[in-house]
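Deliverable D4.2, example record:
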Amino acid sequence: MYARILVPVVLDHEPNIEMALEVAHVLLAEGGEITLFHAMEEIPKFVAAQLPAGTIQRSLEEIDARLAAIAKTAGSHVRSASVSGNASHAILDYINEMGADCVIIASHRPGLQDYLLGSTAARVVRHATCSVHVIR
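Output generated by the structure prediction step:
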């Protein structure tokens, strides 16, 4: 059983979130905590300059609100966090920051581009300092 579980999520994949939370609840130690985590990829500065003022901040606020709503329905031991940045780097940094002892991450079936570039889940598996459970 794990005391601090990190569940990185992509908000556009709701079924994966539910499945990851189910697994997290099974693996959670009594008195433990689950953190839903989302990393919003940074928008290149030349693109951000063309967006209306406050667009990026509103996007982050919407992400925070959606994560908080999911966390609230998942139980009192579930919290949420989000950052702006590269997904795999942000996940790996947050693992160390929160002292996670387990990560539960959803992954798709690997395609050719994943073998050449690597997926987020693959990078987390290779570089995490704690146990990682990959679900499909």
